[in-house]
């Protein structure tokens, strides 16, 4: 007789640290407001990145240039850039050769308050995004601000951000992977889009996640007491 697979109880699950990508809910108000896992701060001179297997934050590389991220930078849990994300990017650019980059959807979070540590979750209000293509891979960058930040709370869309700050974000994303002495990294930003398109990018990312991690979806729904529903 085969043994039936058992799902950990909520009590057992609470004894372990949640995986930042798979074990954290995107938020009940998504895609308008999303939980965001922060990997990097504006003061970081080291490129930090989530180790997908362990869920720990690891050093990817020292930054070769003096360029540092002008915002909190990380990703949206339980999203994935796959087939549905690539289809949307192809549709918007008129291309047919773009594929998903196989990572969670990236997000940059603006805030007036200094945040001095990464490896944290922050609630972020989505206002737009950058349609970035990195070596023929869809690599969207969602733009948001920290929920409750009184300086940015009146921003309703990316068009409310001063042009000089939008250009600063654009320049960073087009150059942060360049390495001195090597061929220039092939990346482009084809569009700067509003919050409605950003919502669709997030929805596609959630669809791709469900398609690629269906078993994890079922496990987390059971642990959270949401059996039969989608987190």
Automatic annotation (TrEMBL):
Q: Which SUPFAM superfamilies does the record match to this protein?
A: Inorganic pyrophosphatase (SSF50324)
**GO BP:** phosphate-containing compound metabolic process
Stated EC number for the protein is 3.6.1.1
The cofactor named in the record is:
Mg(2+)
Name the Gene3D superfamilies on file: Inorganic pyrophosphatase
Q: Which terms are listed as keywords in the entry?
A: Hydrolase, Magnesium, Metal-binding
PANTHER family assigned = INORGANIC PYROPHOSPHATASE
Record's protein name:
inorganic diphosphatase
């Amino acid at each position: 007789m085969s043994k039936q697979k058992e799902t950990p109880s909520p009590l057992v699950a609470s004894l372990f640290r949640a995986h930042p990508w798979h074990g954290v809910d995107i938020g009940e108000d998504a895609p308008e407001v999303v939980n965001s896992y922060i990997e990097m701060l504006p003061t970081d001179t080291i490129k930090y990145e989530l180790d997908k297997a362990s869920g720990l934050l690891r050093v990817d590389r020292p930054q070769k240039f003096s360029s540092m991220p002008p915002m909190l930078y990380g990703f949206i849990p339980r999203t994935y850039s796959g087939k549905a994300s690539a289809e949307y990017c192809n549709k918007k650019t008129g291309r047919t050769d773009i594929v998903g980059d196989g990572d969670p959807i990236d997000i940059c979070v603006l805030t007036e308050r200094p945040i001095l540590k990464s490896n944290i979750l922050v609630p972020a209000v989505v206002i737009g995004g950058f349609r970035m293509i990195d070596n023929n891979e869809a690599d969207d960058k969602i733009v948001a601000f920290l929920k409750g930040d009184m300086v940015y709370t009146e921003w309703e869309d990316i068009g409310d951000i001063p042009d000089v700050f939008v250009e600063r974000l654009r320049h960073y994303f087009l150059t942060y992977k360049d390495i001195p002495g090597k061929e220039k990294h092939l990346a482009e930003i084809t569009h700067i889009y509003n919050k409605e398109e950003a919502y669709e990018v997030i929805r596609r990312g959630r669809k791709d996640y469900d398609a690629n991690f269906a078993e994890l979806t079922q496990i987390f729904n059971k642990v959270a007491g949401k059996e039969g529903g989608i987190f």
